[in-house]
Amino acid sequence: MSGCVGLVGMGLMGQAFSHNLLQAGFKVQGYDVDEKRMRELHERGGTPVESPAAAARGARWIITSLPNSDIVREVALGANGIAEGAANGLVFADASTSRPEDSQKLGAELAERGIRFLDAAVSGTSAMAQRKDLIVVAGGNAEDFKAAEPMFAGFSRAAYHMGPLGSGAMAKLVINLVLFGNRLALAEGLVLGTKAGMQTDNLLKVLQDGACSSKTMIDKGPKMLKGDFTPEGHVKTSLKDGRLALEQGARLGAPMLVASLWTQLQQAAYNQGLADVDSSAFIEVLRGMAGLPKRD
After folding, report:
1. For position 162, what pLDDT does the model report?
2. Of the candidates 98, 52, 105, 113, which has an alpha carbon nearest to the alpha carbon of residue 79?
3. Which CATH superfamily is domain 4-164 in?
4. Under CATH, to which class is 171-289 assigned?
5. Comparing C-alpha atoms, which of 66, 28, 69, 65 is closest to residue 247?
6. What pLDDT is attached to residue 1?
7. Considering only CA atoms, which of 278, 4, 273, 8 is closest in space to residue 126?
8. Could you state, in order of their start, the residue ranges of all structural domains in the chain?
9. What is the C-alpha separation between 109 and 102, in angstroms, rounded?
10. Which end of the chain is more exposed for a tag (fewer CB within 10 A), N or C?
């Protein structure tokens, strides 16, 4: 065995983490509020436990993969939280997309309890995570990052130390901002090609092979083209991430033209009942604006 990892939050991304960590020989003990996810962890060979404190107990590392930094804080410091079960020196990696200032504050409070904290966001869809095709961008103490590297290697293909606490969360928001632009341009191009009567399958192949190609075209292009929005992420999560990016732009005085438009489109998709499908579903908003038929 490579050691014990606690895991709190077993949604699309957390499920992929547990799968790959178990495959790599780690013991995984996990907690989620959803009993179905706990059963699925057991079926994969992991150990479901009754609380975040229990997930931390006896673990060398713990990962949180949760909707936002407020929930991460409650799971870390609340009743039956990670801090209650943690041994001195536990390495705590938060893989959620969090507000950088929240990560800095939480890390300082956990340090007072002898817990080593990293804001260790990941870049990649849940489908990419299943294939271990993720990168980790982490902020925190360099020694703590080194201590976490064996665990990161269990579920990612590369891990980068970005600087002090908050740097990982900020790097994830920058990555997301660039992704927003890629996905928006791809959707606009496909809608324009559709309106022009082009063979869109062929158009997508050209886009994927041309100078404009990107990973997002390979991952999200077929979903946009077919209207298959089986979630690899969610509109509601993308909306939250867009708002976080806009917050940082306002705080730092940086222009956020793409992030602003992206967030409005995700809000429109959310309002059209698409909150729980893949974030690429925003193409339906553009299709509607272009007078194209609605796809179920």
Report:
1. 98
2. 52
3. NAD(P)-binding Rossmann-like Domain (3.40.50.720)
4. mainly alpha
5. 69
6. 43
7. 278
8. 4-164, 171-289
9. 11
10. C
pLDDT at 2: 77
Let me know: does 209 contact 223? Beta carbons within 8 Å.
no
**Integer Cα distance of 248 and 226 in angstroms:** 34
Q: Which residue from 85, 103, 104 is spatially nearest to 95, judged by alpha carbons?
A: 103
Check: CB of residue 179 under 8 Å from CB of residue 282: no
Backbone angles phi, psi at 288, to 5 degrees: -65, -40
pLDDT tens sequence across 54-77: 999 999 999 999 999 999 999 999
Instruction: Give strand ranges (E) for 14-55.
Output: 27-31, 47-48
Read off the pLDDT of each residue in 116-145 and give the average, rounded to a whole number.
96
Contact 149, 159 (CB under 8 A): yes
Phi, psi (deg, nearest 5) at residue 280: -65, -10
DSSP, res 273: I
Identify which of 24, 102, 25 has the alpha carbon closest to the alpha carbon of residue 67. Answer: 102
What does pTM read for this prediction?
0.93
